[in-house]
UniProtKB/TrEMBL annotation:
This is TrwC relaxase domain-containing protein. It comes from the Bacteria. SUPFAM superfamilies: Origin of replication-binding domain, RBD-like.
Length: 232
């Protein structure tokens, strides 16, 4: 890995530095070619003649809608991970609000923050609160302690914790089907159709799972360690 990284750096061409003005001019020229008309004029016409009545401000959105969006954010984030932090909720809130037209960037930031706050309220906080208050010298402008990283509070939901409890219960159950040790050793000792053989560690892992009798068993290993080959 170190040699590959070194080779990548050694053969990488030098970066060409362009100013923002040059980049903007290039983007404008490319957009003009795609649109078949002046890109600046096209954008100005679109923003000037658009339906301004459809633009919303942060205070136009009812609080119950904010709460519903917060719960939707938690539901989506909970499908991808078992624990999360504010940044995960904020990212999903931004995606949820992407299709809503807002009057200003400030309105978008405000409503995104409100939805993120609602998502935090709908989540179950796992990080314990501060045991002691910090002096004003060690507090941020928002009142949070400088001894705790910003956005470090960990969240989950009662449903996810209950699901984890069910998995743990299943992992202690020993009523699953098993395979005779001799049969497993016979299978793991043979090459597959392509002539490949399991390594000693792969054979041991497969044997442990096959004879364990656990209802829920897991095989964990780093990428490239042969986990998929072992299971197949």
């Amino acid at each position: 890995m170190k040699l590959r990284a070194q080779a990548t750096l050694a053969t990488r061409p030098a970066k060409q530095v362009h100013s923002l003005a040059d980049l903007t001019a290039d983007w404008r020229a490319r957009a003009t070619g795609l649109l078949g008309e002046d890109a600046t004029g096209w954008a100005r016409t679109l923003t000037t003649n658009g339906d301004q009545s459809a633009l919303l401000r942060a205070d136009d959105v009812p609080l119950d809608t904010i709460a519903d969006l917060g719960r939707a954010v938690v539901a989506v984030v909970g499908e991808k991970r078992s624990t999360w932090r504010r940044w995960n909720l904020h990212a999903e809130a931004s995606r949820q609000l992407m299709g809503i037209r807002l009057a200003t960037a400030e309105d978008r930031e405000a409503i995104t923050g409100m939805v993120t706050d609602a998502a935090e309220q709908a989540s179950l906080r796992l990080t314990p609160p501060e045991l002691a208050s910090s002096p004003l010298l060690f507090r941020r402008p928002d009142g949070s302690s400088r001894f705790r990283h910003t956005g470090a509070i960990l969240y989950s939901t009662e449903e996810l914790l209950a699901a984890e409890d069910r998995l743990l219960d299943r992992s202690h159950a020993m009523t699953g089907p098993t395979i005779e040790l001799a049969t497993v050793e016979k299978i793991t000792g043979k090459p597959d159709a392509e002539g490949r053989r399991l390594g000693p560690d792969q054979a041991e892992a497969l044997t442990r799972i096959a004879v364990s009798g656990r209802v829920v068993d897991v095989l964990v290993g780093p990428a490239g360690a042969g986990n998929t080959t072992c299971r197949v």
